[in-house]
Amino acid sequence: MKTLWLRANAAILLVAISIAGCSTASRQTEPVRVIPVLPGEGSLTPAAQAKADSGRPPYTAADVRFMQGMIPHHSQALVMAGWAPTHAARPDVLILAQRIEVAQRDEIELMARWLRDRREAVPADTASHHGHAGLDGQMLSPGMLTADELSQLERATGPEFDRLFLTFMIRHHEGALAMVAQLLASPGAAQDTDVYRFSNDVNVDQITEIDRMRIMLRSPTPTSSRP
Known about the structure:
Elements: H1 2-29, H2 46-54, H3 61-82, H4 84-87, H5 91-117, H6 147-155, H7 158-184, H8 193-218
Helix pairs in contact: 3-5, 3-7, 7-8
């Protein structure tokens, strides 16, 4: 009787070990699911992705619209500034245009990266569309020039270009300020650290440049250093 009891327990133990072994093997061979991301960003497991998302400040649809709208807005400024080296007469207009070009190109990269990191759509590089940034079938953002105004600026040279450039760029900058005001008026917007800092920088920089351009419009034309 004792022998039968020992044999029964041994059989039960063997079955338990066999089941545990199968379970362990199943866990070891089951592939780990990863979340595909954009090229250059690597791959994240679901747990790692959840952890990354949990540490990211919240953002709203208004934040996304602001970033998406400001990219073509900045792109048009790049087109306008890009004509200064061959069209402007005043050295200070050329210097201003170069500063605008450097600053806004960097900001476009910042906005595009912010959108990509959150898997939001990034507008196309409209600055390459022969000066018609923001005009390819989409509504113009505040302050942006129409196709006719862009053509007018492109045709102008010398003092006339300087006057139009400053006049149009002031309006363009005022449009950016309106976009910032619209963002900040949206409930819950600009709580994301990057959006808050960027919108604040845009506000300060555009106000400073508007003041400078208004002074330039009122001041006597500096002597050009060009032959």
